[in-house]
Amino acid sequence: MTSGPESINAQTVISLHQTQFGASSEQIKVLVDEAVTWPASNLGCADDGGIGRAVLTPGFRVVLEVGGEQFAYHAGRDRQFFLCNTPE
């Protein structure tokens, strides 16, 4: 959880979310902003129905709340964040 100024990861995800959904900064709350070690190569996201290759994968997770709805963004070490509709 973050308090105060957002990290570079949170800033990146907020910008990505605004581009995709048009939300204003005032509508967006950062709930989670953390480094994680994903248990598989799918970066903790089962959107494609697969479980990924079982290999520990360092990365990041940022969860936003917008209008009472949560949006989970995942990334690997490369910080290429994507919206994960089905977090594991």
Number of domains: 1
Strands, count: 4
Largest sheet: 4 strands, antiparallel
% residues in beta strands = 35-45%
Average pLDDT score: 90
Residue stretches low in confidence (pLDDT < 50, at least 5 long) are none
* Cα distance spanning the termini: 19 Å
Order of helices and strands: HEEEE
Write down the Rg.
Answer: 13 Å
- Derived from helix and strand composition plus strand pairing, the structural class reads alpha+beta
Per the principal axes of the C-alpha atoms, what is the gross shape? globular
Number of helices: 1
Give, in spatial order, the strands making up the sheet with the most strands: 1-2-3-4
Specify the helix fraction band. 10-25%
Please write out the topology.
Blueprint: H1 8-21, E1 28-38, E2 57-66, E3 69-76, E4 82-84
Antiparallel strand pairs: 1-2, 2-3, 3-4
